[in-house]
Amino acid sequence: MTPSHDVVLVGGGGAGLRAAIAIAETNSKLSVAVVSKVYPMRSHTVSAEGGAAGVISPDDSLDEHAYDTISGGDWLCDQDAVEAFVKEAPQELLRLEHWGCPWSRETDGRIAVRPFGGMKKMRTWFAADKTGFHMLHTLFQTSLKYASVARYDEWFVTRLLVDEGRVQGVVAIDLKSGRIDAITARAVILCTGGCGRVFPFTTNAAIKNGDGMALAYRAGVPLKDMEFVQYHPTGLPFTGILITEAARSEGGYLVNKDGYRYLQDYALGKPQPQPVFRTMELGPRDRLSQAFMKELEKGRTIDTPYGPVVHLDLRHLGQKKISAKIPFVRELCLKYQNLDPVKDLIPVRPVVHYMMGGVHTDINGATLLPGLYAAGEVACVSINGANRLGSNSLPELLVFGTRAGRTAAEYASLGLEVTSRVLAQSDDERRRLEGELLNHKGRERIADLRDEMQKTMEESAGIYRSGASLARGVERLRGIQERSSDIAIEDQSKTFNTERTAALELSFMLDVAEAIVTSALHREESRGAHQRTDFPKRDDQRFLSHSLIYRNLDGPSRVEYLPVTMTRWPPAERVYGEAAPNEGQHHVAGSALPSGTGV
Ligand SMILES: Cc1cc2nc3c(=O)[nH]c(=O)nc-3n(C[C@H](O)[C@H](O)[C@H](O)COP(=O)(O)OP(=O)(O)OC[C@H]3O[C@@H](n4cnc5c(N)ncnc54)[C@H](O)[C@@H]3O)c2cc1C
Fold this sequence. Notes:
Structural class: alpha/beta
Largest sheet: 5 strands, parallel
CATH class of the domain at 233-350: Alpha Beta
Distance between the termini: 54 Å
Strand content: 15-25%
Bound molecules: flavin-adenine dinucleotide
Number of helices: 15
CATH superfamily of the domain at 233-350: Succinate dehydrogenase/fumarate reductase flavoprotein, catalytic domain
CATH topology of the domain at 233-350: Flavocytochrome C3, Chain A, domain 1
Helix content: 25-40%
Number of strands: 23
């Protein structure tokens, strides 16, 4: 019999589990399915290190968090969404505390907070540098309390079922048995995370292939702001393993081949004895990654077998502080780089980290397709605009996971019936999968096409792009897309057939890659993480708006624009460093951090 639930959640990461709890709390009679292609605790949320932002100190304010987020996002954030986000983030973080999340504390018992890039107050909660691990555990164990939440661990969703203009479930492969089945539902929430794997060098886990973005895109739902891809300035060369921003917020320096703190040359302020908010190493990620590229052009980076790097210097922090505040950074360096940050410099380079764009939703996670919702990194609400501030994503999962869960629960409570036609659709999908994947004897190798796609993305849509590079990217991706219909699947087994899932993931990634490059080609300006060498200035006249890309099966995708929602913060220049004259009443001139704070 076809499994059936009131709400299906695709994804068991932070957003998915938070949404599941919200649904169970809203209406305990609704049956909820959490469908995840990996065991939930292996979702990418588990690897988040640095922390989660939420106003808690008496000298901080919601308006300041909102302003940092909006200016950090280069005025592309929807300000109503940001206002809701900053208000609900601390409540959500406290709720997590009550569910057992072991936030690090000050010696007097208060929640400890650390500074983070682009923020002018200390408001990033953390659990040492394993924040995502503890948050995901807390959510997972809490979700176990609810009998109404069923889990489909290691089920891979391949398609949304849509009939009568509304979503009515999904088709998924049970990876253990190879069985292909429909799971019907009155509402579906996509919580599938990001898509870093469309690029060759990324901090993202191998499971981050943009599946949910492609599922929605194929169902006619637009993707929003896809041109905005975040590079994190400090990844380990070769592996792409992230060295958390916490390393810089605890006082780490970035130096070039001459040992010079080069960020002082890029309008990010001058070196100070203590780290200063929004200055130098605590500047926003887009600016820091762009500064690296300029250093590379000037020949001031260090060549390694795995590309050019600069150095992250933590040596002056000393072993005690490193072990207390950022133990995982030391562990990663020792294990994967064979060096000890207590006495060695850490080689780092910018690495693709996060997707600002995603499935277009409103402030409650609803998409334009009735019954379909999205939350977490897969969604674009948008609170991140053109550049997300570090530590805003984890609270985003909680705030908008909750909102999407509640809204979907209300919709599912209307009791709309699943139509019989969706079962016929699921039979079609089964035939497609069996024809295209199980028995296909084509000539193209998955790994070759994936490599070509990733190379194309880096060359055409990297930290700096141009009309010419992007147009070339669109063309090359089209070729790869065509070749992908002639893929060879050699493994015919049904149990945990990773070749088959790799083929499905490649097809999702190709759709997402096309959306990124096409959206970037249309945006003829530079804003946040989208830097066009042929249009180096921000152009509020033409582009103070979100891009919406619609998939078109018969021709090029269609790009439209949607105005940004402004409430209280009119567009201004983005200014970092100690002197930030344009921030008006919101600016608190870069005060030095009190020393010895945190645990
Ligand atoms: C290394 C690293 C460190 C980070 N550190 C921080 C930090 O300190 N602070 C911060 O705010 N942010 C951080 N981020 C960003 C943040 O962790 C992520 O944006 C966030 O965790 C994403 O959560 P999610 O619930 O949206 O998705 P994920 O946690 O990625 O979960 C996605 C889920 O979807 C499922 N799924 C996907 N496709 C399918 C499919 N086809 N079928 C079935 N299931 C599917 C997966 O199995 C998984 O359960 C970090 C990111 C990385 C990569």
